[in-house]
Amino acid sequence: MAEISQGGGGGKKKGGKVRSKKTSTRIDMTPMVDLAFLLLTFFVMTTTLNKPQTMEITMPEKIDEHTEVPKVNERDVLTIVLGQSDKVYWYTGITDPKIELTNFSPNGIRKILLKKKAEVPKLVVLIKATDESKYKNMVDILDEMNINTIQRYALVDITSTDKDLIKESNL
Amino acid sequence: MANKGTPTIDMTPMVDLAFLLVTFFMLTATAIPDEPVAVDTPSSISEIKIPEKDVMTITIGKDGKVFFNMDGQYNRAELLKNMGGIYGIEFTPEETHTFAIMSSIGVPMGNLKQILNMKPEERKAAAPDMPGVPVDSLNNELANWVLQARLINRGLRIAIKGDRDANYPVVKKVIDTMIDKRVNRFNLITNMEKGS
Description:
- The complex is a heterodimer.
- By secondary structure, chain A is an alpha/beta fold.
- Chain A contains 5 helices and 6 strands, in the order ααββββαβαβα.
- Chain B is of the alpha/beta class.
- Chain B starts with 11 loop residues before the first helix and ends with a strand.
- At the A-B interface, helix 2, strand 1 and helix 4 of A face helix 1, strand 1, strand 2, strand 5 and helix 7 of B.
């Protein structure tokens, strides 16, 4: 390596002070790099994982006396009632329904939905949530609709008939 | 003299790059807005991400308290002015500024002024005691917030962030309020499904 003499020409070459100064100019950057990458990792992690998922839901228009309500064949209707403590009641049809109990496990409501979907091509699912049910139940059942690709479903108000049905069934 | 045994690498370009990236991520990162209540969102298989801006968030806490939030400082300032007009409350420029930069609203309009005049630390401490925005059919302030917010920013997306243990009647009240104001499409904020 070529050395640049800092003495400014001749004369002082025998001093020996010049050499010791040269080594101290380099800074150890390792801690700085450590810090930089730590911050980098932190920001990368927080920006990508931060965004929450959303589920899109479209509710029907508000019904007034001028709205034409689509008519549905009773046999195509599957009603799901969300009860307290994660219970799921379901029945088909409207006149004299036979109410049954199931749950949110893959062998529960999902199986029923898949079976019904295969049986009834124009399946319409009515979701009724009781006042005792939780928000989680609602999201879960809407999620099941997405999982089982059920096209036609609606979140509707619970009727007193439904409440009585559940009470009578003792499930 | 040339070979001392410990070879040193010139780290300068690496540091340059690292800091460049740090700066980039720091500037693009948006601070997580502090939530008035801890909300444990339910999980779903949905993979749609929430848009970055023009979002109105309605938070439903575990105990059924409803909070309202909207992004955009200028829009918020205007929203406060309009809301003040409806309820006959005049807000000072300082209060408007505080409102523009604060997070969710969780008090009835009558108490808003009091909250705005608090120091940020005091407001944070008072957050658990906030009663939430009224959603009763008699005094539905949420409906007005939603309506006014949508009048100011028409491209607003509405996100409902509910706690998994929130009772359905509260959620229903919020959804009914939306439908009442002719908002038929909204997003439910969920997190990723864990496990199977």
